[in-house]
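agent> Task received from the user: take the single chain below, predict its 3D structure, and emit structure tokens. No templates, no multimer pairing.
agent> Plan: (1) validate residues, (2) run structure prediction, (3) serialize to tokens, (4) report one or two observations.
agent> Step 1 OK, no nonstandard residues flagged.
tool_call: predict_structure(input=
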Amino acid sequence: MEPPYEPRIVFESDDFLVVDKPPFLLSHPTRRNDRPSLLSWLAKERRGSSFFLANRLDRETSGLVLVGKDAAAASSFGRLMERRLIEKEYLAIVWGKLACEFLQIDAPLGYIGISEENPVAIRQGIRQEGTPAITVVRSVFSGEEISLLRAFPKTGRLHQIRVHLSAIRHPIVGDKIYGPDPKFFLQFAAQGWSPELAEQLCLARHALHASRLSFRWQGREVNIASPFPSDLSVFLQQRGIPLPLS
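)
tool_result: status=success, residues=246
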């Protein structure tokens, strides 16, 4: 699957910039350097400049990525995140009707490990010996089949929002790892998108969007928002669900 649009720089200062990342684009290069990433795109856009990611998004997650223009800025953002002084907001379309308007999920996360039930090595789960993880959830729209939520991760663990929402039996629509069957992830990796996957997952990517970043930088309040992407908007409109306000 290819990114449906180019990344967009939506905010820039002397120390950092914020990029709106499309789905199906890696945040950073992997050992397979032939695969495009947000960092490689920035390197082409701003030749001769170096950039350092302050946060990362999963390949299929769209939305805002904070990027330092030098290592010092990225390190400062890292310390702000450790102190929970950068508020990150996500929009998620999930299966099922959320029974409450507000929920805080406080459950430690860690690797599950390969087994007959779990064929995906990177899959996370709730583990008593895991790393602390907290996600606050607020309902935007709750329907019988599908709900729209705002999620506020207070910690930054791998796949945190996806794991927490799956754990409360509201997996994100289109999630190949934490949705109906993790084997769908392996099937997608081996064969690509297919009619069978479309029938089971409904969306070609998981319906998670990093919609807002808020923090204080050098005495100034910074609040940056990203509009709901068109693929997720169409999915909601086809089901008569109101779009989230920006």
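agent> Step 4: summary for the user.
The CA atoms of residues 52 and 68 lie 5 Å apart.
agent> Done.
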